[in-house]
Amino acid sequence: MKKIRRRFASAVGGACAAVLALTGAAVLPPGVAAAGTIMQTTLSIGNPVDGNHGFGVISEGDMVLGSTETEGNVAVGGDLSYGANYNVSLHTTGSFTAPGDAEPTALLIEGAVDYPDGNPAGVLRVLNNGYVKIGDLSGSDVLTEDSNGASVNTRVVATGAAYDSVPRIELSTRQPAASVGPVSGLLDFASLFARYRERSSTLARCNSTVQLLDANGDPLAD
Fold it and tell me: What is the C-alpha to C-alpha distance for residues 172 and 215, in angstroms, rounded to an integer?
């Protein structure tokens, strides 16, 4: 049976503040309301993406990292599959460090690595000494030694596969195997996305007063 997935992703950038002006047809002196008008209410929700713990990309469910790269760190609320070549944390590993770890978490997977749904020759590289956290290691081995028994940078491969096998997750540092996982519950994805939906619903009640532009300065289509 084909697995049906729900995918909700939040691509988050720098902090931003949102002040919501809801309804109102006119501005009147304090305490004065014209007949038939709706008084204006202003709500402040602060940073709409607050709670992301510094992750640059977050998904509520399963995620596919298809090609190229992410500038920062990634948090996956479900299982992860990936394409032929993908780089995580090209410029930054972010600010989230799991308890007891020596380096920030560049890639957090609440579920498992989904090898069958990924590229069979896929290599996902975690750069800048970032750590990996995986909630479910079934189907995976965490290797800290190569085929000669030498201590090397950590890799995550399919169960029983060799250090240089593909597909694999390839770290740029020697993260202890026990630190990789299994470890879950570092982020509460369900609560986080519930808050995102609440904030989105509130923002949707605002009048459309901002024109979104693309990289060339042209208005985005509806």
Answer: 33
